[in-house]
Design a protein that fits this description.
The protein has 472 residues and is α/β, with parallel strands linked by helices. The protein has 3 domains: 157 residues, Cobalamin-binding domain (Rossmann fold); 226 residues, tm_1862 like domain (pyruvate-formate lyase- activating enzyme, Alpha-Beta Horseshoe), CATH 3.80.30; 57 residues, Nucleic acid-binding proteins (OB fold (Dihydrolipoamide Acetyltransferase, E2P), Beta Barrel), CATH 2.40.50.140. Helices cover 38% and strands 20% of the residues. The radius of gyration is 23 Å and the shape is globular. The protein starts with a helix and ends with a strand.
Length: 472
Protein backbone atom coordinates (compact mmCIF):
# COMPACT_ATOMS: atom_id res chain seq x y z
CA UNK A 1 0.00 0.00 0.00
CA UNK A 2 1.46 3.36 -0.99
CA UNK A 3 2.25 5.64 1.93
CA UNK A 4 0.81 8.62 0.03
CA UNK A 5 -2.58 6.90 0.10
CA UNK A 6 -2.27 6.02 3.78
CA UNK A 7 -1.46 9.44 5.25
CA UNK A 8 -4.32 11.92 5.42
CA UNK A 9 -3.07 15.17 3.80
CA UNK A 10 -2.68 18.21 6.03
CA UNK A 11 -5.15 20.10 3.82
CA UNK A 12 -7.84 17.55 4.70
CA UNK A 13 -7.07 17.86 8.40
CA UNK A 14 -7.26 21.64 8.14
CA UNK A 15 -10.65 21.22 6.49
CA UNK A 16 -11.82 19.27 9.55
CA UNK A 17 -10.63 22.08 11.79
CA UNK A 18 -12.82 24.43 9.74
CA UNK A 19 -15.84 22.23 10.48
CA UNK A 20 -14.93 22.31 14.18
CA UNK A 21 -14.97 26.10 14.01
CA UNK A 22 -18.35 26.11 12.23
CA UNK A 23 -19.89 23.99 14.98
CA UNK A 24 -18.33 26.13 17.68
CA UNK A 25 -19.66 29.30 15.98
CA UNK A 26 -23.14 27.77 15.64
CA UNK A 27 -23.40 27.18 19.39
CA UNK A 28 -21.88 30.56 20.18
CA UNK A 29 -24.57 32.24 18.07
CA UNK A 30 -27.19 30.37 20.07
CA UNK A 31 -25.42 31.32 23.32
CA UNK A 32 -25.47 27.61 24.08
CA UNK A 33 -22.98 25.56 26.09
CA UNK A 34 -23.26 22.07 24.58
CA UNK A 35 -22.36 18.86 26.42
CA UNK A 36 -21.10 15.61 24.90
CA UNK A 37 -20.81 12.06 26.25
CA UNK A 38 -18.49 9.40 24.78
CA UNK A 39 -19.16 5.84 25.97
CA UNK A 40 -16.36 3.46 24.89
CA UNK A 41 -16.56 -0.34 24.77
CA UNK A 42 -13.81 -2.88 24.16
CA UNK A 43 -10.05 -2.77 23.87
CA UNK A 44 -7.40 -0.14 24.57
CA UNK A 45 -7.37 0.79 20.88
CA UNK A 46 -11.01 1.80 21.27
CA UNK A 47 -10.06 3.79 24.37
CA UNK A 48 -7.42 5.62 22.33
CA UNK A 49 -9.99 6.29 19.58
CA UNK A 50 -12.42 7.58 22.20
CA UNK A 51 -9.83 10.02 23.47
CA UNK A 52 -9.49 11.44 19.95
CA UNK A 53 -13.27 11.79 19.67
CA UNK A 54 -13.31 13.69 22.95
CA UNK A 55 -10.51 15.90 21.67
CA UNK A 56 -12.44 16.75 18.51
CA UNK A 57 -15.61 17.37 20.52
CA UNK A 58 -13.79 19.84 22.74
CA UNK A 59 -12.45 21.55 19.62
CA UNK A 60 -16.07 21.82 18.44
CA UNK A 61 -16.95 23.68 21.65
CA UNK A 62 -18.42 20.82 23.69
CA UNK A 63 -17.84 20.21 27.36
CA UNK A 64 -17.57 16.53 28.24
CA UNK A 65 -19.98 14.77 30.57
CA UNK A 66 -20.41 11.17 31.70
CA UNK A 67 -24.21 11.46 31.80
CA UNK A 68 -26.00 10.75 28.50
CA UNK A 69 -29.22 12.25 29.90
CA UNK A 70 -27.72 15.74 29.94
CA UNK A 71 -25.66 15.43 26.74
CA UNK A 72 -26.43 17.19 23.46
CA UNK A 73 -24.31 14.60 21.65
CA UNK A 74 -23.97 10.97 22.76
CA UNK A 75 -21.41 8.71 21.04
CA UNK A 76 -21.26 4.95 21.55
CA UNK A 77 -17.74 3.90 20.55
CA UNK A 78 -18.15 0.17 19.98
CA UNK A 79 -16.35 -3.18 19.87
CA UNK A 80 -17.23 -6.04 17.49
CA UNK A 81 -14.97 -8.75 18.92
CA UNK A 82 -17.38 -10.33 21.41
CA UNK A 83 -21.12 -10.98 21.18
CA UNK A 84 -21.64 -9.81 24.77
CA UNK A 85 -20.21 -6.35 24.01
CA UNK A 86 -22.46 -6.08 20.96
CA UNK A 87 -25.54 -6.98 23.00
CA UNK A 88 -24.66 -4.30 25.55
CA UNK A 89 -24.37 -1.69 22.81
CA UNK A 90 -27.79 -2.48 21.37
CA UNK A 91 -29.22 -2.41 24.89
CA UNK A 92 -27.73 1.02 25.47
CA UNK A 93 -28.99 2.25 22.10
CA UNK A 94 -32.48 1.17 23.07
CA UNK A 95 -32.23 3.00 26.39
CA UNK A 96 -31.24 6.20 24.56
CA UNK A 97 -34.73 6.42 23.07
CA UNK A 98 -35.76 7.85 26.45
CA UNK A 99 -33.07 10.55 26.47
CA UNK A 100 -33.98 11.42 22.88
CA UNK A 101 -37.63 11.75 23.88
CA UNK A 102 -36.71 14.17 26.66
CA UNK A 103 -34.36 16.09 24.34
CA UNK A 104 -35.45 15.71 20.67
CA UNK A 105 -32.46 17.81 19.55
CA UNK A 106 -30.00 15.30 21.01
CA UNK A 107 -27.61 13.77 18.46
CA UNK A 108 -26.94 10.06 18.95
CA UNK A 109 -23.96 8.50 17.14
CA UNK A 110 -22.65 4.96 16.80
CA UNK A 111 -19.01 4.48 15.80
CA UNK A 112 -16.17 1.99 16.16
CA UNK A 113 -15.84 -1.58 14.91
CA UNK A 114 -19.52 -2.52 15.15
CA UNK A 115 -20.49 0.45 13.01
CA UNK A 116 -18.21 -0.76 10.20
CA UNK A 117 -20.12 -4.05 9.88
CA UNK A 118 -22.73 -3.84 7.13
CA UNK A 119 -25.24 -6.00 9.01
CA UNK A 120 -25.03 -3.62 11.99
CA UNK A 121 -25.37 -0.42 9.99
CA UNK A 122 -28.38 -1.90 8.16
CA UNK A 123 -29.95 -2.88 11.48
CA UNK A 124 -29.45 0.67 12.75
CA UNK A 125 -31.11 2.08 9.63
CA UNK A 126 -34.16 -0.13 10.00
CA UNK A 127 -34.64 -0.53 13.75
CA UNK A 128 -33.03 2.46 15.48
CA UNK A 129 -34.39 5.59 13.79
CA UNK A 130 -33.30 7.77 16.72
CA UNK A 131 -29.63 7.22 15.81
CA UNK A 132 -28.43 10.21 13.75
CA UNK A 133 -24.87 9.28 12.83
CA UNK A 134 -23.06 6.01 12.12
CA UNK A 135 -19.37 5.90 11.16
CA UNK A 136 -16.63 3.30 11.24
CA UNK A 137 -12.96 3.48 12.36
CA UNK A 138 -11.86 4.62 8.88
CA UNK A 139 -13.97 7.79 9.16
CA UNK A 140 -13.01 8.77 12.70
CA UNK A 141 -10.64 11.53 11.57
CA UNK A 142 -13.45 13.32 9.71
CA UNK A 143 -15.92 13.23 12.60
CA UNK A 144 -16.28 17.07 12.68
CA UNK A 145 -17.46 17.07 9.05
CA UNK A 146 -19.92 14.22 9.68
CA UNK A 147 -21.34 15.93 12.75
CA UNK A 148 -21.74 19.18 10.80
CA UNK A 149 -23.62 17.28 8.08
CA UNK A 150 -26.10 16.05 10.69
CA UNK A 151 -26.65 19.56 12.04
CA UNK A 152 -26.86 21.18 8.60
CA UNK A 153 -29.03 18.62 6.80
CA UNK A 154 -31.10 17.40 9.77
CA UNK A 155 -30.81 13.97 8.16
CA UNK A 156 -29.22 10.73 9.25
CA UNK A 157 -25.59 10.30 8.12
CA UNK A 158 -23.85 6.96 7.51
CA UNK A 159 -20.12 6.75 6.72
CA UNK A 160 -19.17 3.07 6.65
CA UNK A 161 -17.42 2.62 3.31
CA UNK A 162 -15.14 -0.40 3.05
CA UNK A 163 -11.54 0.77 2.60
CA UNK A 164 -7.95 -0.13 3.48
CA UNK A 165 -7.73 2.64 6.07
CA UNK A 166 -5.63 5.72 6.65
CA UNK A 167 -3.49 7.44 9.28
CA UNK A 168 -4.37 10.93 10.49
CA UNK A 169 -1.67 12.62 12.55
CA UNK A 170 -2.19 15.60 14.82
CA UNK A 171 -5.78 14.97 15.93
CA UNK A 172 -6.66 16.57 19.28
CA UNK A 173 -6.70 14.15 22.22
CA UNK A 174 -8.28 14.27 25.66
CA UNK A 175 -6.34 11.83 27.84
CA UNK A 176 -7.36 10.41 31.17
CA UNK A 177 -5.88 12.18 34.14
CA UNK A 178 -3.32 10.11 35.98
CA UNK A 179 -0.17 8.22 35.08
CA UNK A 180 -1.29 5.91 32.26
CA UNK A 181 -1.42 6.69 28.56
CA UNK A 182 -1.97 4.75 25.33
CA UNK A 183 -0.14 5.38 22.06
CA UNK A 184 -1.32 3.76 18.83
CA UNK A 185 1.74 2.87 16.76
CA UNK A 186 -0.19 1.18 13.93
CA UNK A 187 -3.69 0.43 12.76
CA UNK A 188 -5.44 -2.47 11.06
CA UNK A 189 -4.55 -6.14 10.73
CA UNK A 190 -3.37 -8.50 7.98
CA UNK A 191 -3.67 -11.78 9.87
CA UNK A 192 -7.27 -12.87 9.24
CA UNK A 193 -7.50 -15.29 12.14
CA UNK A 194 -10.60 -17.29 11.25
CA UNK A 195 -12.53 -16.29 14.39
CA UNK A 196 -11.76 -12.55 14.28
CA UNK A 197 -13.69 -9.71 12.66
CA UNK A 198 -11.01 -7.04 13.20
CA UNK A 199 -9.31 -7.13 9.74
CA UNK A 200 -12.70 -6.63 8.12
CA UNK A 201 -13.58 -3.55 10.17
CA UNK A 202 -10.19 -1.88 10.79
CA UNK A 203 -8.57 -2.42 7.40
CA UNK A 204 -5.04 -3.42 6.44
CA UNK A 205 -1.95 -2.87 8.57
CA UNK A 206 -0.45 0.58 8.40
CA UNK A 207 2.34 1.84 10.63
CA UNK A 208 2.78 5.35 11.93
CA UNK A 209 6.03 7.10 11.13
CA UNK A 210 8.60 6.31 13.85
CA UNK A 211 9.32 9.99 14.46
CA UNK A 212 5.63 10.68 15.07
CA UNK A 213 5.49 7.89 17.67
CA UNK A 214 8.71 9.04 19.34
CA UNK A 215 7.46 12.62 19.51
CA UNK A 216 4.19 11.54 21.13
CA UNK A 217 5.90 9.33 23.72
CA UNK A 218 8.39 12.11 24.52
CA UNK A 219 5.54 14.58 25.09
CA UNK A 220 3.75 12.10 27.36
CA UNK A 221 6.84 11.49 29.48
CA UNK A 222 7.43 15.24 29.78
CA UNK A 223 3.75 15.68 30.77
CA UNK A 224 4.18 13.24 33.67
CA UNK A 225 2.78 9.99 32.31
CA UNK A 226 4.67 7.06 33.78
CA UNK A 227 3.00 3.93 32.35
CA UNK A 228 2.73 4.11 28.55
CA UNK A 229 1.31 1.30 26.43
CA UNK A 230 2.04 1.01 22.70
CA UNK A 231 -1.00 -0.27 20.81
CA UNK A 232 -1.57 -2.22 17.62
CA UNK A 233 -3.58 -5.25 16.55
CA UNK A 234 -0.18 -6.90 16.06
CA UNK A 235 2.65 -4.66 17.21
CA UNK A 236 5.22 -7.27 16.15
CA UNK A 237 4.52 -6.51 12.50
CA UNK A 238 5.10 -2.78 12.99
CA UNK A 239 7.16 -1.33 10.17
CA UNK A 240 6.47 -4.03 7.58
CA UNK A 241 4.69 -1.48 5.39
CA UNK A 242 7.33 1.25 5.79
CA UNK A 243 9.74 -0.46 3.40
CA UNK A 244 12.81 0.63 5.36
CA UNK A 245 13.71 -2.48 7.38
CA UNK A 246 12.83 -0.59 10.57
CA UNK A 247 10.87 -2.88 12.89
CA UNK A 248 9.15 -2.93 16.28
CA UNK A 249 12.31 -3.82 18.18
CA UNK A 250 14.04 -0.80 16.60
CA UNK A 251 11.15 1.42 17.75
CA UNK A 252 11.42 0.08 21.31
CA UNK A 253 15.16 0.77 21.33
CA UNK A 254 14.65 4.37 20.28
CA UNK A 255 11.84 4.97 22.78
CA UNK A 256 14.04 3.55 25.54
CA UNK A 257 16.54 6.35 24.94
CA UNK A 258 13.97 9.01 25.87
CA UNK A 259 15.06 10.31 29.29
CA UNK A 260 12.68 10.05 32.21
CA UNK A 261 11.17 7.76 34.83
CA UNK A 262 8.59 5.60 33.06
CA UNK A 263 7.62 2.12 31.88
CA UNK A 264 6.78 1.13 28.30
CA UNK A 265 4.39 -1.74 27.63
CA UNK A 266 2.88 -3.05 24.40
CA UNK A 267 -0.04 -5.08 23.10
CA UNK A 268 -1.15 -7.07 21.28
CA UNK A 269 1.71 -9.30 20.24
CA UNK A 270 1.34 -12.14 17.72
CA UNK A 271 3.53 -15.24 18.23
CA UNK A 272 4.14 -15.73 14.50
CA UNK A 273 5.94 -12.38 14.36
CA UNK A 274 7.64 -12.45 17.78
CA UNK A 275 11.40 -12.59 17.18
CA UNK A 276 14.49 -13.22 19.24
CA UNK A 277 15.51 -9.67 18.36
CA UNK A 278 12.36 -8.42 20.12
CA UNK A 279 13.15 -10.36 23.29
CA UNK A 280 16.82 -9.34 23.18
CA UNK A 281 15.66 -5.72 22.97
CA UNK A 282 13.20 -6.11 25.85
CA UNK A 283 15.93 -7.58 28.05
CA UNK A 284 18.36 -4.77 27.22
CA UNK A 285 16.01 -1.77 27.55
CA UNK A 286 15.63 -0.29 31.03
CA UNK A 287 12.25 1.37 30.35
CA UNK A 288 10.56 -1.59 28.64
CA UNK A 289 8.54 -3.47 31.27
CA UNK A 290 9.45 -7.11 31.74
CA UNK A 291 5.93 -8.15 30.88
CA UNK A 292 4.80 -10.10 27.82
CA UNK A 293 1.21 -10.54 26.69
CA UNK A 294 1.51 -13.20 23.99
CA UNK A 295 -1.86 -14.75 22.99
CA UNK A 296 -1.61 -18.46 22.19
CA UNK A 297 -5.40 -19.08 21.82
CA UNK A 298 -5.13 -22.90 21.67
CA UNK A 299 -2.73 -25.66 22.68
CA UNK A 300 -3.82 -27.91 19.83
CA UNK A 301 -1.92 -27.72 16.54
CA UNK A 302 -5.00 -28.79 14.57
CA UNK A 303 -7.13 -26.07 16.15
CA UNK A 304 -4.36 -23.51 15.60
CA UNK A 305 -4.40 -24.39 11.89
CA UNK A 306 -8.17 -23.98 11.78
CA UNK A 307 -7.76 -20.62 13.53
CA UNK A 308 -5.16 -19.59 10.88
CA UNK A 309 -2.68 -18.65 13.61
CA UNK A 310 0.41 -19.81 11.63
CA UNK A 311 2.51 -21.20 14.49
CA UNK A 312 2.58 -24.47 16.40
CA UNK A 313 2.42 -25.37 20.06
CA UNK A 314 6.13 -26.25 19.98
CA UNK A 315 7.06 -22.92 18.40
CA UNK A 316 5.06 -21.04 21.02
CA UNK A 317 6.78 -22.91 23.86
CA UNK A 318 10.19 -22.18 22.30
CA UNK A 319 9.38 -18.44 22.25
CA UNK A 320 8.42 -18.44 25.92
CA UNK A 321 11.51 -20.46 26.88
CA UNK A 322 13.83 -18.05 25.05
CA UNK A 323 12.19 -14.96 26.53
CA UNK A 324 12.44 -16.38 30.05
CA UNK A 325 16.07 -17.37 29.52
CA UNK A 326 16.85 -13.68 29.00
CA UNK A 327 14.37 -12.31 31.57
CA UNK A 328 13.78 -14.78 34.42
CA UNK A 329 11.52 -12.23 36.12
CA UNK A 330 9.29 -11.93 33.03
CA UNK A 331 5.55 -11.85 33.75
CA UNK A 332 3.73 -13.75 31.00
CA UNK A 333 0.02 -13.44 30.22
CA UNK A 334 -2.06 -14.63 27.30
CA UNK A 335 -5.45 -14.96 25.60
CA UNK A 336 -7.13 -18.32 25.14
CA UNK A 337 -10.31 -19.52 23.44
CA UNK A 338 -12.16 -22.67 24.50
CA UNK A 339 -14.83 -24.25 22.31
CA UNK A 340 -13.64 -23.25 18.83
CA UNK A 341 -15.90 -24.91 16.22
CA UNK A 342 -15.08 -28.60 15.96
CA UNK A 343 -12.70 -28.57 18.94
CA UNK A 344 -12.94 -31.83 20.88
CA UNK A 345 -12.58 -32.32 24.60
CA UNK A 346 -9.14 -33.87 24.04
CA UNK A 347 -8.03 -30.78 22.11
CA UNK A 348 -9.41 -28.48 24.80
CA UNK A 349 -7.38 -30.44 27.33
CA UNK A 350 -4.28 -29.86 25.17
CA UNK A 351 -4.90 -26.18 25.82
CA UNK A 352 -5.18 -26.86 29.55
CA UNK A 353 -1.92 -28.84 29.46
CA UNK A 354 -0.14 -25.95 27.73
CA UNK A 355 -1.39 -23.63 30.49
CA UNK A 356 0.06 -26.01 33.07
CA UNK A 357 3.36 -26.31 31.19
CA UNK A 358 3.92 -22.57 30.69
CA UNK A 359 2.68 -21.41 34.09
CA UNK A 360 1.09 -18.14 32.99
CA UNK A 361 0.78 -15.37 35.53
CA UNK A 362 -2.73 -14.62 34.27
CA UNK A 363 -5.01 -15.42 31.35
CA UNK A 364 -7.80 -13.66 29.51
CA UNK A 365 -10.14 -16.58 28.85
CA UNK A 366 -13.04 -16.76 26.41
CA UNK A 367 -15.69 -19.25 25.41
CA UNK A 368 -15.82 -19.13 21.61
CA UNK A 369 -18.33 -16.59 20.33
CA UNK A 370 -19.19 -16.75 16.60
CA UNK A 371 -18.81 -13.47 14.74
CA UNK A 372 -20.85 -13.16 11.54
CA UNK A 373 -18.64 -12.56 8.55
CA UNK A 374 -15.71 -14.65 9.78
CA UNK A 375 -14.70 -18.05 8.37
CA UNK A 376 -15.06 -19.77 11.74
CA UNK A 377 -18.72 -18.78 11.95
CA UNK A 378 -19.37 -21.03 8.92
CA UNK A 379 -17.68 -24.13 10.42
CA UNK A 380 -19.71 -27.04 11.84
CA UNK A 381 -19.85 -26.88 15.62
CA UNK A 382 -21.17 -30.19 17.00
CA UNK A 383 -20.48 -29.70 20.71
CA UNK A 384 -23.11 -27.93 22.84
CA UNK A 385 -22.20 -24.88 24.91
CA UNK A 386 -22.90 -26.78 28.15
CA UNK A 387 -20.18 -29.29 27.25
CA UNK A 388 -17.73 -26.52 26.34
CA UNK A 389 -18.50 -24.83 29.65
CA UNK A 390 -17.12 -27.88 31.48
CA UNK A 391 -13.83 -27.60 29.55
CA UNK A 392 -13.76 -23.88 30.25
CA UNK A 393 -14.30 -24.45 33.97
CA UNK A 394 -11.35 -26.87 34.02
CA UNK A 395 -9.16 -24.23 32.38
CA UNK A 396 -10.19 -21.65 34.99
CA UNK A 397 -9.55 -24.10 37.81
CA UNK A 398 -5.98 -24.75 36.62
CA UNK A 399 -5.15 -21.10 35.92
CA UNK A 400 -6.70 -19.70 39.11
CA UNK A 401 -4.68 -22.16 41.20
CA UNK A 402 -1.49 -21.12 39.38
CA UNK A 403 -2.22 -17.39 39.74
CA UNK A 404 -2.96 -17.82 43.44
CA UNK A 405 0.30 -19.74 43.97
CA UNK A 406 2.38 -17.19 42.06
CA UNK A 407 0.84 -14.36 44.08
CA UNK A 408 1.33 -16.17 47.38
CA UNK A 409 5.05 -16.45 46.61
CA UNK A 410 5.26 -12.64 46.72
CA UNK A 411 4.21 -12.40 50.37
CA UNK A 412 7.11 -11.08 52.42
CA UNK A 413 8.94 -9.65 49.41
CA UNK A 414 9.54 -5.97 48.65
CA UNK A 415 8.71 -4.84 45.11
CA UNK A 416 8.71 -1.57 43.18
CA UNK A 417 5.31 -0.29 42.08
CA UNK A 418 3.81 2.71 40.34
CA UNK A 419 0.90 4.06 42.37
CA UNK A 420 -1.77 4.81 39.77
CA UNK A 421 -4.90 5.76 41.72
CA UNK A 422 -7.42 4.94 44.40
CA UNK A 423 -8.65 1.36 44.85
CA UNK A 424 -12.01 1.86 46.55
CA UNK A 425 -10.88 -0.56 49.27
CA UNK A 426 -11.14 1.06 52.71
CA UNK A 427 -8.28 -0.93 54.26
CA UNK A 428 -6.03 -0.71 51.19
CA UNK A 429 -7.09 2.59 49.60
CA UNK A 430 -4.44 2.85 46.87
CA UNK A 431 -4.07 0.98 43.59
CA UNK A 432 -0.67 0.32 42.03
CA UNK A 433 1.07 -1.89 39.50
CA UNK A 434 4.37 -3.72 39.46
CA UNK A 435 6.63 -3.63 36.41
CA UNK A 436 5.02 -6.93 35.44
CA UNK A 437 1.59 -5.23 35.66
CA UNK A 438 0.48 -7.12 38.76
CA UNK A 439 -2.21 -5.29 40.70
CA UNK A 440 -1.10 -4.28 44.21
CA UNK A 441 -3.59 -2.71 46.62
CA UNK A 442 -1.76 -0.87 49.36
CA UNK A 443 -2.02 1.30 52.43
CA UNK A 444 -1.00 4.94 52.16
CA UNK A 445 -2.10 8.48 51.38
CA UNK A 446 -3.13 10.07 48.09
CA UNK A 447 0.17 11.95 47.95
CA UNK A 448 1.76 8.70 46.72
CA UNK A 449 -0.32 8.64 43.51
CA UNK A 450 1.92 9.08 40.47
CA UNK A 451 5.07 7.96 42.27
CA UNK A 452 7.31 4.93 41.97
CA UNK A 453 7.68 3.48 45.47
CA UNK A 454 8.69 0.24 47.16
CA UNK A 455 6.04 -1.92 48.80
CA UNK A 456 6.30 -4.86 51.14
CA UNK A 457 3.75 -7.50 50.14
CA UNK A 458 1.69 -8.62 53.14
CA UNK A 459 -1.06 -10.65 51.51
CA UNK A 460 -2.46 -12.01 48.25
CA UNK A 461 -5.30 -13.74 46.48
CA UNK A 462 -5.85 -15.04 42.96
CA UNK A 463 -6.25 -11.60 41.42
CA UNK A 464 -4.21 -9.13 43.48
CA UNK A 465 -1.40 -8.50 45.93
CA UNK A 466 -1.70 -6.41 49.12
CA UNK A 467 1.03 -4.40 50.78
CA UNK A 468 2.34 -1.32 52.50
CA UNK A 469 4.87 1.31 51.47
CA UNK A 470 8.38 1.01 52.86
CA UNK A 471 11.28 3.43 52.96
CA UNK A 472 14.07 2.41 50.60
Amino acid sequence: MERERVLVPEAELERQREFEERIRAMFAARQAHPLACVDTFGCQQNVADGQKLMGMLESCGFTLTADPKEADVVILNTCAVREHAEDRVFGNLGALTHTKKENPEQIIALCGCMAQEQRVSERIKKSYPHVNLVFGPHALWKFPELLWQVYESRRRVFSVQDEHGTIAEGLPVVREKGVKAWVSIMYGCNNFCSYCIVPYVRGRERSRDPQAVLSEVRELVEAGYRDITLLGQNVNSYGNDLGSGYDFADLLSEIDRIPGDYWIRFMSSHPKDATRKLFDTMARCSHVAKQLHLPFQSGSDRVLREMNRRYTREQYLELIAYARSLMPELVVTSDVIIGFPGETEAEAMETVSLVEEVGFDALFTFLYSPRPGTKAAELPDPFPRAEKQKWFDKLLEVQNAKSAALHAAYVGKTVQVLVDGESGDGEFPLSSRTEGNRLVRLKGGKELIGKFIHVRITGSNTWALYGEAVQR
